[in-house]
């Protein structure tokens, strides 16, 4: 069955990935029949109205989903398509109360024009009352205009199945959150990230670069039990009344925050066991948050004593840290995912990419992980990508890929952090 | 740190990872607290096959908590059998006990000790610190 998804014209590059992830989350197939980043309207094939409802209820980037009644490049072809698709269903709505919505993209319609559009559907044998409030059935006409034109280029008509949960973006708005930092991800993208991680009830999610817990909060909203760690313990502990836990309390989801602990991902205490359903993170790349790992710049060192006592056993001891390459960190994150994710569990990872082709960072790869989607967020002078990987069930892993990977490991560990260098040069090319 | 999390951590030192005695880490001078968590028996069901039951038994013993059954409960132990028709299965006392043990029992203050290398990790206000000094990295 064909459905029309109407989305916000926002974070366009993430929409298709979100639709597919939500279908995977609920265990049904979705086929994208028409999609463009330039249009808020997308046509998909789904197994049923129930599937469409489940999908839309979890969507952040979509607004609503409709059973597609017809589409066309003008009203004549729309009406013709509508007739051939749905004439046999019309009688179902004979006595229903109903309402028509009209949505225009990149243009406006006057009240009379809207009236005319609705009138053009008067051949539908609907005898029920026309009620804007809670009608039995609601239809929507969606018009796509090329910028600056007066006639729509594509028109869709559909029966409303359900609305998305886009409103929760407001609930999690960072401006209203008690504890945030300069690197907190905005609420909308954090929630989308959680969707791409297939967050859901009964799952365990982990963020190894947890900061102020933006991702665990988003995943916990969708029902996950969540775990986070950071090399900087102060960010978990926070200041005074404001800490990670107070954020969870603010949203009434403290009962899903399993633990926060202080750890360096490259020296993680977590065991190599397949216990995580999702790993979600925004690793530091040295712009605002220095990428550091445990260890001394001077290489291996002897234990330090103060007055005959081990220095590290003093209460205020802060272990030294050293620089590390972003490329190596990405590789470590994927390997950690390969080691700890359940079959089909996901690594969802943000990384920068310069628009400049010559500094583009390659996608990190791991033979146990399959790249599922790549979405790009553009800023003025740079952009970043959201990468989604799936942990392959071990039987699906290619043995040749593993040996090639093991062979090449070790050579790539210490390249310079290109992005960082570029950033401080101010993107001069 | 919750006992569920403790079941997934070992000594952070790379040199200890391959040694079986680096897991579980042993609580010392532990001050326990109960932190209320959302009761979710399906989540427990998801976690059961991932637990190292023996390690959990050792920890319970060391913390003087009630003795656990000798083997991991089965998923069927979490829900009452023979629920009528389509009504969702009711969680059992086993599920409630496991929830309290794994998700609510928290080490608030204390140390976690690796019995392979003897390194001690401090827990303060429920937050464990696994950072290592350079000579142990
Ligand atoms: C971009 S921020 C993540 C922000 C987070 N998503 C939030 O909502 O606040 C990156 C975080 O990684 C931490 N970090 C840096 N190096 C690390 C390492 N080696 N292991 C673990 N965390 C590290 C930093 O302390 C910082 O909090
Ligand atoms: Zn150890």
From TrEMBL, chain A:
**Pfam families on file:** Tmrp11_N, UPF0020
* Location(s), subcellular: Cytoplasm
The kind of enzyme this is, by top-level EC class, is: transferase
Q: What is its main location?
A: cytoplasm
Q: Does the keyword Ribosomal protein apply?
A: no
Could you name the Gene Ontology cellular component terms for this entry?
Answer: cytoplasm; tRNA methyltransferase complex
Gene Ontology terms for molecular function: tRNA (guanine(10)-N2)-methyltransferase activity; tRNA binding
Q: Where is the Ribosomal RNA large subunit methyltransferase K/L-like methyltransferase domain?
A: 176-290
Enzyme Commission code = 2.1.1.214
Q: Which UniProt keywords apply?
A: Cytoplasm, Methyltransferase, RNA-binding, S-adenosyl-L-methionine, Transferase, tRNA processing, tRNA-binding
GO biological process terms, semicolon-separated: methylation; tRNA processing
tRNA (guanine(10)-N(2))-methyltransferase TRMT11 N-terminal domain: residues covered: 1-166
- Quote the InterPro entries the UniProt record gives: DNA_methylase_N6_adenine_CS, RlmKL-like_Mtase, SAM-dependent_MTases_sf, TRMT11, TRMT11_N
Q: Which Gene3D superfamilies match?
A: Vaccinia Virus protein VP39
Protein family membership: Belongs to the class I-like SAM-binding methyltransferase superfamily. TRM11 methyltransferase family.
Protein's UniProt name: tRNA (guanine(10)-N(2))-methyltransferase
Provenance organism: Eremomyces bilateralis CBS 781.70
From TrEMBL, chain B:
- The UniProt transmembrane annotation reads none
Q: Which species expresses this protein natively?
A: Eremomyces bilateralis CBS 781.70
Family indicated by similarity: Belongs to the TRM112 family.
The GO molecular function terms of this record are: methyltransferase activity; protein heterodimerization activity
Lineage start: Eukaryota, Fungi, Dikarya, Ascomycota, Pezizomycotina
Q: Which InterPro entries match?
A: Trm112, Trm112-like
Gene3D superfamilies recorded for this chain? 2.20.25.10
In Gene Ontology terms, what is a biological process of this protein?
A: tRNA methylation
The protein's UniProt keywords, in alphabetical order, are: Methyltransferase, Transferase
Q: Which Pfam family, just one, is annotated for this protein? A: Trm112p
Name recorded for this polypeptide = AdoMet-dependent tRNA methyltransferase complex subunit Trm112
